């Protein structure tokens, strides 16, 4: 095993030195840039340092290099042969890791590479993108990009077909609760829906604030209740919620606001679950901000899944650079998509999710 450090003014030159001295099978361990000369690193000349290693170094004279060592499978120890060094094992690990990363990387060179690139640019997870693109070459000529994109668009529209808003029953009363992390827009969304269903659709609507933590949050919903002309009740326990639901049986729609809860706080989520269990038929919408990174949104949806939300409602589409989080989550969970909100204005900035519009956003270049 030979490890050597090469210094040069350019990366290209340093790499040439590595190739010449250690051969093509050399492994780069580390590279860094630094300033040579000057004062306290100022006005110095920028240099590049490359640390490389190889198991057998060919001479610079151009002798045939020794066959490369398979670091992934260290050779079985031969009698009297030296034990593989720690560095060798480290290199083996690094090579294996690299192989795994390369294996997971999208095959952008493949025929549907440009479509995959477009999906991934919009933060669609690789597994989701692959399932959307599976066998797409069988139904369309991939060398015709416009037609290929059209077919993909239809597949996305089909995927988003699982859209279902609030269906108010012709007879009886329906209770819908909105749960989710803090500040995602639950209360604002309830105000929008209350206005839509009461003023535009003419239903008898009531609101309930099951918001036990903050006075200001209750005040916020009370203000909307006054403006929209929809009655409001405030409850502090599951028993009170049960009583309020019974009292409002003459209302066709009861919208229940809940306190924003941290997905990390199991106690708070269990408390929320107890509220939702007071009646078997409370429809639950998990409210998520489209601006949340997929990894965090996945964590939120997983933690809130103990409350069994049937629907996902996405807010702040107007602020999001893409809607990848939405498609990734819906691919992961059996929930349907209900509404999307796209601004702060009550009651205007809300609509039933539109699969075609969402497909356009997913394929935004
Ligand atoms: N840009 C944008 N802002 C929104 C949207 N929906 C809500 N907001 C804003 O998000 C902020 C928080 O909204 P709230 O409705 O109070 O959020 P919440 O989920 O009820 O918050 P907590 O009760 O504290 O958990 C407010 O400033 C809203 O105006 C939206 O679709 N787009
Ligand atoms: Mg709120």
Automatic annotation (TrEMBL):
It comes from the Bacteria. Its main location: membrane. This is Flagellar biosynthesis protein FlhF. The keyword Nucleotide-binding applies. It holds the Pfam family SRP54. The keyword RNA-binding does not apply. Residues 173-364 form the SRP54-type proteins GTP-binding domain. The lineage of its organism: Bacteria, Bacillati, Bacillota, Negativicutes, Selenomonadales.
């Amino acid at each position: 095993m030979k490890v050597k450090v090469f210094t040069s003014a350019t990366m290209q030159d340093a790499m040439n030195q590595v190739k010449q001295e250690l051969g093509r099978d050399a492994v780069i361990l580390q590279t860094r840039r630094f300033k040579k000369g000057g004062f306290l690193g100022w006005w110095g000349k920028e240099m590049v340092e490359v640390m490389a290693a190889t198991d057998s170094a060919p001479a610079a004279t151009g002798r045939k290099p020794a066959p490369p060592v398979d670091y992934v499978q260290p050779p079985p120890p031969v009698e009297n042969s030296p034990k593989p060094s720690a560095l060798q094992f480290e290199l083996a690990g690094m090579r294996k890791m690299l192989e795994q990363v390369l294996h997971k990387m999208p095959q952008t060179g493949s025929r549907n590479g440009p479509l995959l690139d477009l999906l991934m640019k919009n933060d669609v997870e690789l597994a989701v993108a692959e399932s959307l693109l599976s066998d797409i070459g069988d139904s369309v000529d991939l060398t015709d990009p416009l037609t290929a994109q059209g077919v993909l668009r239809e597949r996305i529209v089909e995927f988003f077909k699982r859209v279902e808003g609030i269906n108010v029953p012709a007879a009886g009363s329906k209770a819908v609760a909105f749960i989710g992390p803090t500040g995602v827009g639950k209360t604002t969304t309830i105000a929008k829906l209350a206005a839509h269903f009461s003023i535009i659709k003419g239903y008898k609507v009531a609101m309930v604030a099951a918001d036990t933590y903050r006075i200001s949050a209750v005040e916020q919903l009370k203000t909307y209740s006054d403006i929209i002309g929809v009655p409001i009740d405030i409850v502090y326990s599951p028993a009170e919620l049960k009583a309020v639901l019974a009292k409002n049986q003459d209302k066709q729609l009861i919208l229940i606001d809940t306190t924003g809860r941290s997905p990390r706080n199991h106690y708070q989520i269990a408390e929320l679950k107890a509220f939702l269990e007071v009646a078997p038929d409370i429809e639950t919408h998990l409210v998520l901000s489209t601006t949340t990174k997929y990894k965090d949104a996945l964590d939120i949806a997983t933690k809130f899944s103990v409350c069994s939300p049937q629907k996902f409602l996405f807010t702040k589409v107007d602020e999001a650079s893409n809607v990848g989080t939405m498609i990734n989550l819906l691919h992961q969970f059996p929930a349907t998509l209900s509404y999307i909100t796209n601004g702060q204005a009550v009651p205007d900035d809300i609509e039933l999710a539109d699969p075609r519009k969402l497909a356009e956003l997913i394929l935004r270049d």
